[in-house]
Amino acid sequence: MANLLLFITRSFFKLCSFSLSILFLISCSSFPSTEAYDPLDPNGNITIKWDIMSWTSDGYVAVVTIYNFQQYRHIQAPGWKLGWTWAKKEVIWSMMGGETTEQGDCSRFKGNIPHCCNKHPTVVDLLPGTPYNQQIANCCKGGVLNSWTQDPATAASSFQLSVGQSGTTNKTVRVPVNFTLKAPGPGYTCGPAKIVKPSRFVTPDGRRETQAMMTWNVTCTYSQFLAQEAPSCCVSFSSFYNDTIVPCSKCACGCQNTSQPGSCVESKASHIAPVVNSYTPLVRCTSHMCPVRVHWHIKLNYKEYWRVKITITNFNYNMNYTQWSLVVQHPNFDNLTQSFSFNYKSITPYTAINDTAMLWGIKFYNDMLLEAGPLGNVQSELLFRKDKATFTFEEGWAFPRRIYFNGDNCVMPTPNVYPGLPNASSHQLTSALGLLVTLLAAMALLFGHA
């Protein structure tokens, strides 16, 4: 009897340990990852290139260029902020095309005062309209950078700085450390600076090539989890063959805080109080509490084509989304015939599969998504050609697999609530009714023989 009790006790503890292990694995998988890898843009990053162009009596003159190599994530107003920590006691004597946010303590200098004496400087871009004698090429855009897919010509930003007390040779100069990039908020993690082969430059006449004295690169990658605590957008569905509108999931981007008045704005509010940080979302009171909603409506079905309407609605009273972008993953994008009022470009992270498209507004027409209100939406229609081997309206095939807005993954409805076909709905209703009738008949038979 004692051996049996011991066996049962050991078995119980083994079962508990196994159960706890399973629960631990499930809990770990339920937490969002902080990794910056994006399956739709696996090589996307922001690269900072630091080129020393010439030496001075106590340092060097360098050109720093920020390249946005991300396919669909751009940097919008108020623009980027680039920071670092000097390795020694460097100062910035002067700058062109950018400026530091603080001068720091320059009291040890007499006469010629540096532009910045801060050990941890933060640089911002100059605004459009800056006098020409303070500009260099690719500067003065207010820190706004387009994505590489939207416009490669405006996906880079540069500034020039004259650094002192740094050393005047490749062996005495030390690269800065602890680079940070805000665009305009958190989300980017920058690696260490790596000395690379000096950059080469071709003169305007194309007949001569020069090179930098020294070059180092810094790579920064984006993580949505680090950028904000909650998602920033959600997706809703509807279709011509079903009266049901599938709304954004409840509390998709957070729940209303009923104990804190003013945490969201009622749609009929006549006055909106100003917010200290105007870039903090102040959203309309909704069940989903998302700053942006993307609605996918299956509009029409033709013999050889089918048509979809996309509507993007801004619920954020504190933000005009300039140069917005939308990335949609759907298997029929390899047969997209026309996009009526959005720009379109195919994105193929894996060349054999063409199922992802980037959409963005037409300049001066709908490239700005205005803040919440009557004009706070943009819309377009997409016309797809049917592939008879794959096309179907069944089982949610006609709805997108994934949607990104401004590079952030939007919360999708769960598949069980997708609008169903009428015959599928009636079939489910008939099945449920048949099951109920069978159950009632069985109960009547049971009680009849009791």
TrEMBL record:
The keyword Lipoprotein applies. It comes from Gossypium hirsutum. Belongs to the COBRA family. The chain crosses the membrane at residues 429-448. Keywords: Glycoprotein, GPI-anchor, Lipoprotein, Membrane, Signal, Transmembrane, Transmembrane helix. It is found in: Cell membrane. Residues 1-36 form the signal peptide. Its main location: membrane. This is COBRA-like protein. Residues 232-416 form the COBRA C-terminal domain. It comes from the Eukaryota. InterPro entries: COB_C (IPR056900), COBRA_pln (IPR006918). Pfam families: COB_C, COBRA. It is a lipid-anchor; GPI-anchor.
